[in-house]
Amino acid sequence: MTNDISRRAFVAGGVTAALPFTARSYGRIVGANDRIQIGELGCGHRANGHRTMLKKSAATDPKFDVRSVCDLWSVNRERAAVDVEKLFGAKPKTFKYSEEMLADKDLDAVMIGTGDHQHARILAEVVRAGKDCYCEKPMANTLEDAKLARDTVKSSKQVVQMGSQWLSDPYQQRVREIVRSGKLGKIVSVSQSWNFNGPRWDVPKSPDIAMLQEKDTDWKRWLLGRTPRPFDPRVYFEFRIFKEFSGGITDQWYSHGSGLVHFYLDTFIPDNTVSNGGIFAWHDVRENPDTFQCLSTFA
């Protein structure tokens, strides 16, 4: 999702691609000594990947600072601050709440790596604050939230990009070139498979789950509009296996599969889709399927 992107570059992909080093706020003039000020919103596993790629990209485009980190959980927040200082030589500002970080007038761009169900609402908040934004996929897992994010971005001048790392992979770009060249003829079927022999997204002995205490975070804020429920550190960290917070395999893996088909064939929305699945192998606390098959048809 971009808005008026031709006015400047905003290079972003996923955790395997270059991230936003050439964006700058519209209301500011870029000078020879300007450094882009980046904030991390959400400091868990995905944010760690963001920092790794920022560090790698600094070898060729070093004119940025990781200015701030924001996370509801105090432990994640401090871990991220320590890591930023180690990687980039300066300790960032730390914030518990997004509105505190976004009030910083010198912040240019934000990278969202929060829980999936929070993405769309936080994305809208970032854009309304006048910051450019890179957001992990999925952008949303409810239609209401998706429309909120779309409408907010389209009515702004900010540059926004969703992360889907496969589309930044040179291998996948080469596949697209071959398909477009016509060498393969008419493509009538694309088959993809993701296999994982384990209880994906469920880590029963996770040290973070054991460590998290309600007093160290803000459970109500974390729920962000979802149905109120008692504090549960497993839901907090393993939201991908719970229906109210994630589509599970569909928005974690099928989104990549369908995204690649769209990328290869210049298609968009399938004409019809049928699917089947269930919890067949991992009878733990999960609510989302551990097995899923899907067939989509594009005219």
Q: How does this structure look, described?
A:
The protein is an alpha/beta fold and 299 residues long. It has two domains: 5-167, 3-Layer(aba) Sandwich (Rossmann fold), CATH 3.40.50.720; 171-202 and 238-297, no CATH class. The protein has ten helices and eight strands. The strands form two sheets. A six-stranded parallel sheet has the order 3-2-1-4-5-6, with helices on both faces. Strands 7-8 form a two-stranded antiparallel sheet. Helix 1 packs parallel to helix 2 and helix 4 (119-128) runs parallel beside helix 5. The radius of gyration is 20 Å and the shape is globular. The two termini are 24 Å apart. The relative contact order is 0.12. Mean pLDDT is 89; it is low at 2-32.
Describe how the helices and strands are arranged.
Layout: E1 36-41, H1 45-57, E2 64-70, H2 74-88, E3 93-95, H3 98-102, E4 109-112, H4 119-128, E5 132-136, H5 143-154, E6 160-163, H6 170-181, H7 207-211, H8 219-223, H9 233-237, H10 249-265, E7 272-278, E8 291-297
Parallel strand pairs: 1-2, 1-4, 2-3, 4-5, 5-6
Antiparallel strand pairs: 7-8
So how many helices? 10
| CA(first)-CA(last) distance | 24 Å
Bin the helical content. 25-40%
Under CATH, the homologous superfamily of the largest domain reads: NAD(P)-binding Rossmann-like Domain
The CATH topology of the largest domain is Rossmann fold
Strand line-up in the sheet with most strands: 3-2-1-4-5-6
Order of helices and strands: EHEHEHEHEHEHHHHHEE
Overall average pLDDT: 89
Helix/strand/pairing category: alpha/beta
Beta percentage is 5-15%
Total number of beta strands: 8
CA-based shape? globular
Unreliable runs? 2-32
Radius of gyration: 20 Å
In CATH, the architecture of the largest domain is 3-Layer(aba) Sandwich
Largest sheet: 6 strands, parallel
CATH class membership of the largest domain:
Alpha Beta
The total domain count is 2
